[in-house]
Amino acid sequence: xxxxxxxxxxxxxxxxxxxxxxxxxxxxxxxxxxxxxxxxxxxxxxxxxxxxxxxxxxxxxxxxxxxxxxxxxxxxxxxxxxxxxxxxxxxxxxxxxxxxxxxxxxxxxxxxxxxxxxxxxxxxxxxxxxxxxxxxxxxxxxxxxxxxxxxxxxxxxxxxxxxxxxxxxxxxxxxxxxxxxxxxxxxxxx
Length: 190
Fold this sequence. Notes:
By secondary structure, the protein is α+β, with helices and mostly antiparallel strands.
């Protein structure tokens, strides 16, 4: 990959500084960019501010994880809507992973809301700022759209799925109790 010209790098850093300043003051910042990657059903990569690539987490929604039922379909649905297109991003913050959080608009279309309305994502209750997404989710559920067409046991909200996965990892990483015999001697493989 070739380095960007110095003036583009400076413009990108200036743009990021402006976003930080606006967010620190409690205001949202609107950016324009082209979607160059879809990570999953609620995270994209966009070229903004002097051709800098930003990771954007769609605000107020939570799509199934990649390995969850409907995860691949949610990613495909988001890609079909916005991949390669110029969008408007209303940035409202940054998460603990360094991703920008925002609402994505394609023209007048609220893409975050469409993902919930079509059953590709849940309204992320922990971060909701209004009732619209809850109403859209209820309608998608009633109409059996998207993930709501799956059997009930397959519809695990992503925040619960991540929590279960995390607990499983911790159990697997815990040291074995002392009363379990360990292999000894040479030539033995685990």
